[in-house]
Amino acid sequence: MSLPPTAYVILGMLRLGAETGYDIKRAVEVSTRFFWTISEAQIYPMLARLDKDGLIVGHDASHGRRKRRAYELTPKGEKALIEWLSFEEPLPFEVRDVALLKLFFADAAEPEAAIEVIRRLRSRSEQELGVLRAQEAPSAELAESGGGRFPAIALRAGIAVHESLIAVAAELEAELAAESG
Amino acid sequence: MSLPPTAYVILGMLRLGAETGYDIKRAVEVSTRFFWTISEAQIYPMLARLDKDGLIVGHDASHGRRKRRAYELTPKGEKALIEWLSFEEPLPFEVRDVALLKLFFADAAEPEAAIEVIRRLRSRSEQELGVLRAQEAPSAELAESGGGRFPAIALRAGIAVHESLIAVAAELEAELAAESG
DNA sequence: CCTAACATGTAAACTGTTACATGATTCC
DNA sequence: GGAATCATGTAACAGTTTACATGTTAGG
After folding, report:
1. Model confidence pLDDT, tens digit, residues A130-166
2. Mean of pLDDT over chain B
3. Which of A78, A84, A87, A102 to mutate to test the interface with B (most CBs of B within 10 A)?
4. Contact predicate B109/A85, CB 8 Å
5. In this model, does residue A25 exceed pLDDT 70?
6. Whole-angstrom Cα distance, residue B21 to residue A131?
7. Is B77 exposed, middle or buried (0-12, 13-18, 19+ CB in 10 A)?
């Protein structure tokens, strides 16, 4: 019974305290989306499947008339999560980035336009960095309250990636600006 | 007439000297795949479409009995490529990385298993770095022969990303080893 | 002679997103 | 009263990959 990474995102988020599909969605938006995105349309069917497979259990937690279904990990689900963490498998690093793609082909453009391509790449990464930095405080809090230190650590990795992209872009801008006078 | 990024990969590669679908496939494998992958099954249909749209022209270039179809950019195609480079659009940085995902959820594992997760992440990025570094010489050559400098520049960005991931992982390994040691 | 590389293409399957549909509750 | 947030779910669509199908030619 092998599960897609999406399933482990859900198991992992339930372990970190999320209860509903909606909780998971919000948690992903501010954390794992930097290295693994999942959408609503994947979450709800996957919750149903994991429940059916006995990795999680759901119960009705409606507030009055408001529908709400809360889930928690079963021992079997926790075991599956832990085993996945230690499972040896290929770990491809897949990136889709139009900004870097444009940089690669920037020889086709005029020098000024090429510099602009780099500027936009840097600006994009600066924005991403801002979002990531805004998560530093909440995830440090989570770590101190005993909720786990690794979310903050993974955040550090994401920050490092964008910082290095910004550094390369800034260097490049200086180089190219110097050339064109 | 808006085209998917895949179309620009093809236009860009033709501009850099590729002639056939096969050429494009090989070029992508050693270059753009680090920030944008495309497969055979996308290349050939897209070549046909771009030809139909007048952005490229194909002619038969068979060697004896060996089928071969060579394409080149039309002025319209080159214009489309240049306009795309300057086109303002959102530039999402999408990453799919199981290694970072496991790092995020590593609190569920025993400390030693968590360190192993980091080691594997580092080892993965070291391998990727090796592949990227192997491209430095050929892409520097391309730049010196007047074939364009930006492929080498984009490579620098890829190298920087993995170097920063390796640095973070090494730091982390030392931190965690000191704690458990 | 045989293997690797050259070369083109398609069908089926799979994955994932966008948009839609629906409605309750809380806060201003 | 209205907007934002909480909350669940599906259908249609778009994009991508895998596997298959086929054949040539250069080099060891």
Report:
1. 999 999 999 999 899 888 999 999 999 999 999 999 9
2. 95
3. A102
4. yes
5. yes
6. 40
7. buried
What sign results for the dihedral spanned by CA atoms A89, B97, B86, A108? negative
Share of chain B above pLDDT 90, in %: 93
pLDDT digits 0-9 by tens, B42-96: 999 999 999 999 999 999 999 888 999 999 999 999 999 999 999 999 999 999 9
Percent of chain B with pLDDT over 70: 99
Residue with CA nearest C1' of nucleotide D17: B39
Residues in chain B: 181
Query: Chain centroid to CA A178: how far?
Result: 37
Taking the C-alpha atoms of residue B117 and residue B163, their distance in angstroms, rounded to an integer, is 18
Distance from CA of B81 to the nearest CA of A (A): 8
DSSP readout, A98-157? HHHHHHHTGGGS-HHHHHHHHHHHHHHHHHHHHHHHHTHHHHHHHHHTTS-SHHHHHHHH
Neighbouring CB atoms inside 10 A of A83's CB total: 11
Residue B25: count other Cβ atoms within 10 Å of its Cβ: 17
In chain A, residues with a C-beta closer than 8 Å to the C-beta of B154 are 100, 103-104
Give the count of Cβ contacts less than 8 A between chain A and B.
207
Tokens of residue B108, six digits: 């569920």
CB contact under 8 A, B109 and A82: yes
Q: Contact, A7 vs A25, CB < 8 A?
A: no
B-chain CB neighbours of A31 within 8 Å are 104
**Is the CB of residue A176 less than 8 Å from the CB of residue A118?**
yes
